[in-house]
Every structure is written in C-alpha cells, then in structure tokens.
Amino acid sequence: MKTRTITAILAMAVFLPIVIYGGLPVLVLAYLLAIVALKEVLNMRRIKLYSLPGLISLSALCLIMSPERSKIVESDFQVPFLIIISLILLSHTVISKNRFSFVDAAFCMLAVAYVGIGFMYFYETRHHGLHYLLFALLIVWSTDTGAYIFGRLFGKNKLWPEISPNKTIEGFIGGIASSTIVAIVFAMYYNMPVGFVMLIIVTWLLSVAGQLGDLVESALKRNFGVKDSGTLLPGHGGILDRFDSFIFVLPLMNIFLINFQS
C-alpha cells in the first residue's frame, strides 16, 4: 500500500502540471504513454516492440496519433500509409514462413487502433479546454473510487466473474452514482455546453464506458494469462492498467465536445 501511494503521488506530480500547461508537452506525453502502452499490449502476444512487426506497429501508431493541425502528416495520406503498413505486416507472414501469422498481423493493427485512438483523444480533448479533460479524468476516478467502495460495502452479485471476479453489480451502480455527484459539483464551477439533464446522461455514458474499458483490458490480460499489463508503475502495474478506462472515455468525450461545443 505504501509503494502504491508513493507511486500515485509521484505520478500525479508529473502528470497534472503537464496537463494543466497543455500544448506541446501534452502531445509529447500522449505519445510517450501510447508507445509504452503499445509495448505492453504487444508483449502479451510475445511480439517485441523493437522487432520488425513491432517497429511497423509503432510507425502506424505515430500516424494514427498525428494531429492534423501540427502538419506532421497530412490527413489525406494517413489512410494510404496505414493500408501500406497493413500490407507490409501481411507480407511479413510470408517472409517469416508463418512464424509471424495472419493473427499476429491482425493483433498488431488492432493493438495500434486500441492504443492510438485513446491517446490521440487525450490531447485532442485537452485542446478543447483544460476543464473538459479534467471533467473526463474526474468522471473516471470517481467511478473507480465509487465502484470500489460500494463493491466492498454492498457487493454481493458478481458483474462479470469470468472476466473480473472482484467486480460487482453494486459496485457498477455505485460507480455511476459517484460520478454523477462529481459531475454535478463540477458543473457548478465550470460552464458545460449542455443542460443539466444532458449532462447527467453524458456522465452516465462516460461512467459506463470507463467501466467497460476496464473490463476490456481485464479480458485481454485474462486471455494471455497476465496479472498486469506491465511493471512500470510500482503497485499499479503498467500504463495500460492506469489508462484502460480513459481509452474508452476520451473518444466519447471528444464526440460530445464536437457535437455541443460548435
């Protein structure tokens, strides 16, 4: 517990100032987190990041995360490049004499989409405004905290025992309730671009999405027989273990912003 607490404090001491500052530091942070997360996912399949398939996947990740306004890669060329990368991965199945299989190639591309889209929306949401990203972060954290507390106090009915034995239906509902309270308090201090009813609906959607994202990563780890995605954060596992909920929440948060901010 002591190690977990110290790690959390140190991580927040680095993470929050960068998020608050915004701009290029957030973009760099998003890329670094995404690269580590991709490495963790590929390791589950025993594909090394510094192998040929790993480096090809890394290139695809950078293309997916390339922000249009930075002009690193023109958006018109992103899809053709990704198609070429997919063909190269498929060609590698022949060159490797099927040691690297079709399933491996598909896994690499889906891993890139899974990680890349989530972390791309990390800095896209921050670009819309600090309070929007803080809102998403608070929804996820309050959902996790509420689910844990309600699950420990009242949890009797398992939510999805085949995937995550410790999660309960009571915890699931408690997470939504906790996030709702936090959203209401947050809206009292920051002007959100929707009315009260829509704010509650969006909060419920994000809370459910966050818990689903957590279950998706649990299913991934259970499939490959690993406890944590990595060991980078002592007491907390890997980067993917800490950001699995955000990968589902932030794209939805961005869609919410695009629909209502304009």
TrEMBL record:
One of its GO terms (molecular function) is phosphatidate cytidylyltransferase activity. Its EC number is 2.7.7.41. Keywords: Cell membrane, Lipid biosynthesis, Lipid metabolism, Membrane, Nucleotidyltransferase, Phospholipid biosynthesis, Phospholipid metabolism, Transferase, Transmembrane, Transmembrane helix. Pathway: Lipid metabolism; Phospholipid metabolism; CDP-diacylglycerol biosynthesis; CDP-diacylglycerol from sn-glycerol 3-phosphate: step 3/3. It is a multi-pass membrane protein. GO terms for cellular component: plasma membrane. It holds the Pfam family CTP_transf_1. It comes from the Bacteria. One of its GO terms (biological process) is CDP-diacylglycerol biosynthetic process. Its main location: membrane. It is found in: Cell membrane. InterPro entries: PC_trans (IPR000374). The chain crosses the membrane at residues 6-37, 49-66, 78-95, 102-123, 129-150, 171-190, 196-216. It catalyses: a 1,2-diacyl-sn-glycero-3-phosphate + CTP + H(+) = a CDP-1,2-diacyl-sn-glycerol + diphosphate. PANTHER family: PHOSPHATIDATE CYTIDYLYLTRANSFERASE. Belongs to the CDS family. This is Phosphatidate cytidylyltransferase. It comes from Macrococcus hajekii.
